[in-house]
């Protein structure tokens, strides 16, 4: 969206809703309905198998198909997803990273097919395609965990996409540098700004050094770099962060890359407000949180978002319903069309208070950027674990402040008395649920797709892709050929895995600590851990596991940090584990309890697989506890199936969670509660 150059009312931002689930057909229905309600852009949520390069019938995809987004396994799915939606006039954001090249190739191919069906020149249609592929792999190593390949090859895929889109799809944003997810895993405003800029520098340096584009085109490369940011409820600080972002980006583009055109240096960003700040307790409070957070990215005209998507009030409970998403869209529309927000120049210009805060963030960000660049840049800082450790530590400190009451969360650690909520009167019906039949249908559909395609064309295109990956050729051409031949998402990724290998990012747990927590509670639990170990004759050991494809690991990491600080020996191997791998590690390490963290909605499939696996391995006496976004009815099902405890976002006191885990271990070994711990300091039975 262009910025106005006069005093007329500013144009509203692109309004999106992050959506997609179950199947391409059901998601297409949802998109059409949302567009009819006044949404002006699409934001596609892909399921975890699609994001991590697996087909629906892969072992790791079990329980994950269609849960947190739409499964797209091949060109046929992409056709269905955008059926009846002219891509030449759409504005589509795709939250896709490791497999971004593949999904863009499918999208471009569907646009070509639509043009051919209409008898128009597909080159003109592709040149009009507008939207974004998220494609920020650096933050995947630090937060969301949907990486596939090592940092070097991943950066190459991004570089090839940037070069291809600048030359062929000039209105497309080939990358969204995402500070959003950094805040979700604990980044302070300074870290959020600094690490995002370090990622942008890494990408721009890689594109410049690749030699794929002439120097005179580099301004167009810079102009297509977009950002995706987070806005928390401290909306004054967040607004200042956005002004700092705008100023620093302009400075980097001008001084580091010599970009003279102010339009090419413009900081262009979309936003989703802070999902991490949404609470399960008194979830109706999330409505005002979302509105206040939206102000952070809309109040300052010079730093105003040009695309906004808002979470729904009940996302801490589960998948929002269409009505919940409509409510979030209406919040945007009321602000844009009913208020006078868009009628004024920047209302913060000249404020010494605002400028002082902006300067503070800028100074901290510049210093942190210099620190990362001295290490060799963003990729080196990822591989060394530096950035991950910094953010795990920041989140541990934030959790400490919440637990001791220094940071107030209304309805959680203060003002927690409440009346029954009519918004939740429907119980399990207050959230959208994905029918398990969707996964079975996806598995059957991809088998049918494989059975009806030209196998030789598929294999030939994959051979070309593998061969190109071993050279420095741009991989978009080979990927487009794969898309048209009928290759599947899993096959494309598997071919590149053969050449590039896979990667496991540092967890950041070993260097982080919440040891600064004040009060006696941590000491009590530490004593209980030690004395229980003495009774059992060995130090207590906990395995923290992330089954399936859910890469949101900050909860698991914080549990691992707190468990270690209370005296447990912690076994934590990171994300993306099969049930068999978790069971094997639990048996080999001789752990006293297994803790599973699942945020993707696959708990009813992934957790029983671990419980049954332990029983089959003769280790059924090892108790299993589970944490995640788990509706009450599902929690009852898990408990009935042998899980010892279920923790959800309302269980924010992590030291109390540690105490409960010790209690679980004592119950499993028929040890009595230690005298004095069941009625003191928040360690009562939950």
From TrEMBL:
Cofactor(s) the protein requires to work: adenosylcob(III)alamin
SUPFAM superfamilies: Cobalamin (vitamin B12)-binding domain, Cobalamin (vitamin B12)-dependent enzymes
Subunit structure: Heterodimer of an alpha and a beta chain.
Pfam family, one: MM_CoA_mutase
Keyword Signal: no
Protein name according to UniProt: Methylmalonyl-CoA mutase
Species this protein is from: Actinokineospora globicatena
Source organism, top-level taxon: Bacteria
Keyword Cell membrane in record: no
Domain B12-binding: 539-668
GO molecular function: cobalamin binding; metal ion binding; methylmalonyl-CoA mutase activity
